[in-house]
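Severity: low
Component: inverse-folding endpoint
Summary: output formatting inconsistent between runs
Steps to reproduce: submit the following C-alpha cells with default settings.
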C-alpha cells in the first residue's frame, strides 16, 4: 500500500453523513437493485457500502485513508459481494464494457475530477448518485446559464437534484449547502458515442477559442452563408459571445456541423 501524504486523515477527510437512516431512505428510493454493481467512491467508514450491500447489490469501494480501511476490515471485508481498493479512484481503470451504478459521498475538493471521470469518460454509469455541494450541481445543470461542462453532460444524462440535506446531517458540519445529485443515463443519447469526442472538442472550441462571437467561431468551421442560416434555424444571435448560448443551441450547431 502507498499513500500520498504522511497525514492521510487531513488530506482525504470529508463530511460524513451522520444518520444511517437517511442513507437507507435514499438508497431505497434509488434505481439500485439486487445484483447491480455499485461504486462507492471515497467510501469513508463504509456506511453507504453497507446499506447498498444490504439491498443485495455488489459493491466496489474506493478509499485512500488507511484508518477507514481498518474499520472496514472487521465489518465488510468477508462479504463476497464486496471489494475494497485502497487507491485513488482517479487512478482506476474501468474494465471494458462494465455496467455499473454509483452511490457515493465524494470528497468535495475532488468533485470536478470525479465527475469528469465518471460522466465524461468512455464507460459511463447507468445511473449515478453523488452527494455534493449545491453550487457544483448548479454548474453541471446550467441552472443560471449553461457553463462549459453542462452542455457536455446533457447529451448523455438527465441531471437533477433529488434531495436537499440539512447541514447538521453531516459531521463535521459543512459551511455550504449539500444535495444529492442524480445523473441518469439517457435511454437514447443525443450525441452517439462515436461522435462524443468530436462534440467535446466542438464545445471547447466554441466557448474557449479566441473568437469572441458565435459568428467568428462558426466562420472557422462552416461556409460563409451557413452561420446566418443557423441563426435563423436556432433563433440565436450570432453576434454574441458563445458563452451566452444555451445547450439546445450548441446541440443544434453541432448537428448542423
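Observed output (run 2 of 3):
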Amino acid at each position: 500500500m502507498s499513500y500520498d501524504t504522511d497525514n492521510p486523515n487531513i488530506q482525504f477527510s470529508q463530511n460524513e453523513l451522520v444518520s444511517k437512516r437517511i442513507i437507507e431512505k435514499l438508497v431505497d428510493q434509488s434505481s439500485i437493485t439486487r445484483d447491480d454493481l455499485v461504486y462507492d467512491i471515497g467510501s469513508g467508514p463504509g456506511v453507504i457500502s453497507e446499506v447498498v450491500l444490504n439491498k443485495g447489490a455488489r459493491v466496489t469501494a474506493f478509499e485512500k485513508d488507511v484508518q477507514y480501511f481498518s474499520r472496514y476490515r472487521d465489518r465488510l471485508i468477508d462479504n463476497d459481494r464486496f471489494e475494497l481498493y485502497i487507491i485513488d479512484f482517479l487512478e482506476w481503470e474501468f474494465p471494458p464494457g462494465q455496467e455499473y451504478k454509483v452511490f457515493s459521498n465524494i470528497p468535495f475538493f475532488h468533485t470536478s475530477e470525479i465527475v469528469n471521470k465518471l460522466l465524461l469518460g468512455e464507460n459511463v454509469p447507468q445511473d449515478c448518485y453523488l452527494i455534493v455541494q449545491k453550487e457544483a450541481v448548479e454548474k453541471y445543470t446550467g441552472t443560471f446559464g449553461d457553463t462549459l461542462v453542462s452542455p457536455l453532460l446533457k447529451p448523455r444524462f438527465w441531471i437533477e437534484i433529488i434531495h436537499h440535506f440539512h447541514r447538521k446531517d453531516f459531521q463535521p458540519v459543512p459551511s455550504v449547502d449539500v444535495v444529492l445529485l442524480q445523473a441518469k443515463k439517457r435511454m437514447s443519447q443525443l450525441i452517439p458515442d462515436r461522435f462524443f469526442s468530436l462534440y467535446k472538442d466542438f464545445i471547447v472550441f466554441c466557448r474557449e477559442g479566441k473568437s469572441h462571437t458565435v459568428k467568428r467561431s462558426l466562420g472557422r468551421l462552416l461556409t460563409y452563408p451557413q452561420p446566418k442560416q443557423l441563426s435563423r434555424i436556432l433563433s440565436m444571435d450570432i453576434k454574441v459571445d458563445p458563452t451566452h448560448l444555451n445547450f439546445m443551441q450548441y446541440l443544434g450547431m453541432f448537428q448542423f456541423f
